[in-house]
Write a structure and sequence with these properties.
It is built from two helices and 38 strands. It is mainly β. It folds into two domains: about 300 residues, Glycosyl hydrolase domain, family 43 (Tachylectin-2, Chain A, 5 Propeller), CATH 2.115.10; about 180 residues, Jelly Rolls (Sandwich), CATH 2.60.120.
Length: about 525
């Protein structure tokens, strides 16, 4: 019997939803302000996943997302397969609920269209009923709508183009003892019941609830089916119920790990004699993860029976490093805002060139042209060779770890030449955006850069002039969480606002090598 251990995706893949079609599993996740967004992942066994595409090249409100809008954009989406098509329904809490479709989840995907316009509508999920009608359930964001902790249902047309009925509140969390922040609903049918799986209690401290009713409009009864209990997995909720070809049921959900983001766990799912689901360990409350097979494989490693063992499948978080040996950018990369064509050049010759972008006050949090990836959930080391070209004073390029605060290491053009610099965002939000950590003349126009992130999220910044020289450690700076996301590792090239830059002012990067827990990623 094969086994697996959680998390199956040990990095920031927030609010996962998934479906099985044939022998293939497909997953999507929230992407917020980042573009391309709506990452699409593929698996044959629910454990080993590959990031194969991004369904949303850019957010449709092009002008609004020309700048980073941290915490806005794509919130918890849903993924369904119906009428030989894949459907993604996602909320933008500032604009409404949007839909896009594809016959192949690897793309191409349609342009998104707005199903329901409005502020504060979040976490939508459609259901094509067995009786031929179509419904959509969604939650509410108090920050935009003034209300939360309730789930609303509305009838829509089968093509998800328009609302055809009156919206109703079907579950009011304020009427349920102890419930707060009820959100993230997923709507299903099984054995004559309508089911709404929905988390409550908050991202870091909440639980998963199952609601059921014989009518889609309710009334719904409920049961808590997954919570932390005695496990170390905090806030286990918001995810996807999927089935395996052998008839087994499984549940994918996230756990908020702070600076490492919302990592994805896979739980076994069983059905009690009274028809209610039970997720996780076979304990009364449904504890998150940990299985008795741990003792069978030694060292107390938390493992579970593998749902669909596939020969040759390699469990592990999707690829991180990049040799830049094929034209264009791999799906693993994203920008902090809708990208412009002139931001980069990736010809496939082993290099990536980023043209220096003017940044107000030098704040990298305000620069859309930061090319990033999620920070893995285990210790990781990122290395690349950076070259700075051009003559505009203040132009800089380097490697950054970006959250609500950030730190970076790279090269900066000065009146005297080029310096190796390490800086961090200044605390307190005063006039100074950044403060210096270290600075010294560079031995040449290019250097090797390294960011080593430990198990607590502290980043040790190092550099060297040539690959055969020892690394010089400069500083250790804690990474910080982003807005609804974990920290990111990124590449950038920037210039002061108003600098007389030309196309020659740029940063060029060699292959990015990433090791996670000592292994190439």
């Amino acid at each position: 019997m094969a086994h697996y251990s959680n998390p199956v995706l040990d990095a920031d893949w927030p609010d996962p939803d998934a479906v099985r079609v044939g022998d293939d599993y497909w997953m999507i996740a929230s992407s917020f302000n980042r573009a391309p967004g709506l990452p699409v992942l593929h698996s044959r066994d629910l454990v080993a996943w590959e990031h194969v595409a991004n369904a949303l090249p850019a957010l449709p409100q092009a002008g609004h997302y020309a700048l980073p809008r941290h915490g806005s954009g794509v919130w918890a989406p849903s993924l369904r397969h119906h009428d030989d098509r894949f459907w993604i329904v996602y909320p933008d809490p500032d604009h409404g609920i949007f839909v896009l479709t594809a016959t192949d989840p690897r793309g191409p995907w349609s342009e998104p269209w707005c199903l329901i316009a409005g502020r504060g509508l979040i976490d939508p999920c459609p259901l094509w009923d067995d009786d031929g009608r179509t419904y959509l359930v969604h939650g509410w964001a108090r920050s935009r709508a003034g209300i939360k902790n309730r789930l609303t249902l509305v009838e829509v047309d089968p093509g998800l183009r328009e609302v055809v009925g009156q919206a109703r509140t079907v579950i009011d969390g304020d009427e349920l003892p102890g419930f707060r922040t009820l959100e993230g609903p997923k709507l299903y049918q099984r054995d004559g019941w309508y089911w709404i799986f929905a988390p409550a209690g908050g991202v870091a401290t909440g639980w998963q609830t199952a609601f059921r009713s014989r009518s889609v409009w309710g009334p719904y009864e409920h049961r808590v089916v997954l919570e932390q209990g005695g496990s170390p997995v905090n806030g286990p909720h918001q995810g996807a119920w999927v089935d395996a070809p052998d008839g087994g049921d499984w549940f994918l959900h996230f756990q908020d790990r702070g600076v490492f983001g919302r990592v994805v766990h896979l739980q076994p799912m069983r059905w009690d004699d009274d028809g209610w689901p039970r997720l996780g360990d076979p304990l009364p409350a449904g504890d998150a993860v940990r299985d008795s097979t741990a003792d069978a494989v030694g060292r107390g490693t938390p493992v579970l029976r593998h749902p669909v063992p596939v020969p040759g499948a390699e469990p592990g978080e999707p690829a991180r490093g990049d040799a830049f040996d094929t034209p264009g950018l791999a799906p693993r990369w994203h920008w902090q805002a809708n990208p412009e064509p002139g931001w980069y050049d990736a010809p496939g010759d082993g290099t990536l060139r980023l043209r220096a972008q003017a940044t107000a006050r030098g704040d990298l949090r305000a620069q859309g042209a930061v090319l990033g990836q999620q920070l893995p959930g285990q210790p990781s080391t990122w290395t690349t060779r950076a070259t700075l070209s051009g003559t505009a004073p203040g132009t800089r390029t380097g490697l950054v770890v970006l959250g609500r605060e950030y730190s970076w290491l790279g090269l900066e053009r000065t009146p005297a030449g080029v310096d190796v610099v390490c800086r961090r965002s200044a605390p307190g939000g005063g006039a100074a955006v950044e403060e210096s950590v270290a600075q010294a003349p560079a031995p040449g126009p290019d250097v090797d850069l390294r960011a080593a992130v430990d198990a607590d999220g502290e980043v040790t910044w190092s550099w060297r002039a040539h690959g055969d020289e020892p690394w010089q450690d400069l500083a250790a700076v804690p990474a910080t969480v982003g807005h609804w996301i974990g920290a990111e590792v990124g590449l950038f090239a920037s210039a002061p606002l108003g600098a007389a830059t030309t196309a020659d002012d740029a940063g060029t990067f060699g292959p990015v090598r990433v090791t996670v827990a000592g292994k190439d990623a």
